[in-house]
Amino acid sequence: MRSGEDVRTLGVVGTGAIGVSWVALGLEHGLDVVAWDPAEGAEERLRAQVAPLVEPGGRLRPSVSRPTQSSGALRFAESLDELGTTADLVLESGPERLEVKREIFAALDAAAAPDVLLTSSSSGLMPSTFQDACTRHPERVLVAHPFNPPQLMPLVEVVGGSATSPEAVEAALETLRHLGKRPIHIRREVPGHVANRLQAALWREAYHLVDEGIVSVADIDTAISDGPGLRWSLLGPFATQHLSGGPGGLGHVLEHLGPPMVEWWDDLGHPELTPELTERLVEGVGDELDGTPAEELVARRDQALRRLLEIKTDLGLG
């Protein structure tokens, strides 16, 4: 399987928020990028969004990120077949609909060389559900699920399907590390993979607490962003819990605080996402943001993410 430095041309299928960020990541790492999206006006929107990164001819501006690397060029393919025959690695970020995934991967499998990885950014679909649409080489199909925006966020979840080869998984892990990511290997397929399931568990209780009138939407966000979220951004939940145990570490925590935690588990809610609750959540976010444009928040968030990642790297926490 092509991996690491063997990947010189990145194929990006779908140019929504995730696809655009994959394109930017490839350009920043000096890769040529070929993109495809069937939506009307997709090429114009993509080029407008990456315009701050590239020269008029399509090549990365040397001052953007890694001036010592050769700069990559961006072009738009006219078909999936053209993209498949050109790319050394494919990152698919199309709609989260199984029938669409199956059509896309069948076409890519027919066009791409046998040693080209075909990966999906799917946030919850298991690769076995669309892998069998590839009749030539299903062993090179897997999920490489990033977190938005993947240009900045280090995490990528690598999930193999029932037909995925160990060589494909290793090639994906190696290539993602080469692109500056911190991939983790999900060893068994489950709906939603891992990080989204963890988020879903937190959201379930957050929705329940709001639904019961225990706390406001804004206070939930404060409880996480100014509480455990700060620590979790530096160390994960297990390492954070270990440090809270003092000299006894995680063993001490589980011995003394484990039983009460089990009681909390039994008391966690099971909310129904009714129209009324949905309206309450949406209104709560609106009140919290108080008219601040989403674009402004995204820009401030991404600036803070860059600084935080630099700090983690400097301190050996990233």
From TrEMBL:
Residues 10-188 form the 3-hydroxyacyl-CoA dehydrogenase NAD binding domain. Pfam families: 3HCDH, 3HCDH_N. Pathway: Lipid metabolism; butanoate metabolism. PROSITE patterns: D_2_HYDROXYACID_DH_1. Residues 192-261 form the 3-hydroxyacyl-CoA dehydrogenase C-terminal domain. Keywords: Oxidoreductase. Gene3D superfamilies: N-(1-d-carboxylethyl)-l-norvaline Dehydrogenase, domain 2, NAD(P)-binding Rossmann-like Domain. It comes from the Bacteria. InterPro entries: 3-OHacyl-CoA_DH_NAD-bd, 3HC_DH_C, 6-PGluconate_DH-like_C_sf, 6PGD_dom2, D-isomer_DH_CS1, NAD(P)-bd_dom_sf. Belongs to the 3-hydroxyacyl-CoA dehydrogenase family. This is 3-hydroxyacyl-CoA dehydrogenase. It comes from Nocardioides luteus.
